[in-house]
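Limitations
The structure tokens in this dataset are predictions for the assembled complex, not deposited experimental models. Users should treat interface geometry with appropriate caution, especially where small molecules or nucleic acid strands are included. An illustrative entry is reproduced here so readers can see what is and is not provided.
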Amino acid sequence: MIQWSGVDSPSDLDWLGLYSPPESPNDHFIGYKFLNESSTWKDGFGSISLPLTNLRSNYTFRIFRWSESEIDPKHKDHDQNPLPGTKHLLAESEQLTFGSGVGMPEQIHLSFTNMVNTMRVMFVAGDGEERFVRYGESKDLLGNSAAARGMRYEREHMCDSPANSTIGWRDPGWIFDTVMKNLNDGVRYYYQVGSDSKGWSEIHSYIARDVTAEETVAFMFGDMGCATPYTTFIRTQDESISTVKWILRDIEALGDKPAMISHIGDISYARGYSWVWDEFFAQVEPIASTVPYHVCIGNHEYDFSTQPWKPDWAASIYGNDGGGECGVPYSLKFNMPGNSSESTGMKAPPTRNLYYSYDMGTVHFVYISTETNFLKGGSQYEFIKRDLESVDRKKTPFVVVQGHRPMYTTSNEVRDTMIRQKMVEHLEPLFVKNNVTLALWGHVHRYERFCPISNNTCGTQWQGNPVHLVIGMAGQDWQPIWQPRPNHPDLPIFPQPEQSMYRTGEFGYTRLVANKEKLTVSFVGNHDGEVHDTVEMLASGVVISGSKESTKIPNLKTVPASATLMGKSESNALWYAKGAGLMVVGVLLGFIIGFFTRGKKSSSGNRWIPVKNEET
Ligand SMILES: [Fe+2]
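Predicted assembly:
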């Protein structure tokens, strides 16, 4: 809680800036809040409570007076709001120090490795001193341990601004990476990370991957981002709080069943503002420290003006959406299986985590990059071809491919037309020939399910006609409209093409549940945490779609949305039995700072409301 008093002639443009590190210049805040959030602001005193994420550095808080006449319409944030002025500093707080210290491991997240019977854990700390993981099957006996490799990236590794600017750059800390080995299939393991000298994290647990399991559970989405408890330079994604909340509910309901998460690009939406990555990892830690968190690269992690693969047809597709990060935080903060790597052609270290695959239970999962070369003849194409051709369908009857930009969408995303055509030309034949079951895409911030499809034509079975889903609905809110009618392009009527079986503007995520006979994907809406669309793919090839809408069509075979989410031994009600836990972002501090301020000027009383209106 931050308290202030003694502000003379308060103005509703008076604002509170958050600074970390404390010596940051006045216009290098990480975020801000208006004092008028406090009900007593007009009386010159008040308080604001907000959770703070450990940025491995102290915070300070400053109060500024800002008047309407000083609004600079050219100095705007990403939401087109004028950035607050810093000419009149009224007060600065003492420094706020995290009780747990800068050495504490934070942002813990898991992933699979190339080896079965292992689990990777990564985390961040403020120094590079040696850290470890200790783990075991009992909470009271973490008898195994492994040293973690520490690494970091520097400001000069960033390719452009804001990532390499003094406003966007912050010390990202040390990233630690280690692997827990010799795990028994399907067993719960307890673990903590840290060191005796710098402190240990709390104990977390996960269920080890069981490659022979008869059931597979995954939570899948794209474009989630994170929420920040303050306004910052770029658009943040408030809906991501609900997405994480409902997935946490589902994970708790699973009990001792293994699961995994796929976040298929556009991950934190930091775009060069370093601390947003910290906010993201703090927000997802409750789920990512419990089930492996898998990713593929999106335009907002990567795209930069000199990216090495930018054919003429892609000149207007690959822009500067990475905010100058050029894939560096993505490549170091995650360590996915496989060994894909592309040079950035700059000082930045190579881009990793581009394409890889693994088996989990009855599903073979493939992750690809739509931001780097995927055309015939390239190394990624060769990987995808070899990988799809070598799947053992007796072991994994279902194959799920995931990438960021969609091959199919009915969104009016004109800019990406050429990339969709190239994907259909180069990748779709591989998917069709090798009987990919399901293709999942993000980038478009909508949920949309297509019929089993190839060459833009609906088929009857998924063999030869993968089912495509767009699942970029997990948090980012900006989205173009659906495709208009070609013969009435200006009329606001957006008929749903017949290939599009279900589409919605609702936020949420998808659940995948598969056994050897059937793979089911359900869309869960964030407003109620319930299933709003379902598709089932049987190993025989039959595709059954069941949604609230389709149940109204008499001759379409339907499946109740609630019937197929879990294996036979579990009641579906279990998904909902435990309710939703309250998500706390970052660390809530009971810390009170007193401000004694001297007011200078009065100002008129218009209320400023930040509006999210457009993504650039
Ligand atoms: Fe995207």
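Some entries come with short summary sentences. For this one: Residues 106-575 form a domain with the Purple Acid Phosphatase; chain A, domain 2 fold (CATH 3.60.21.10).
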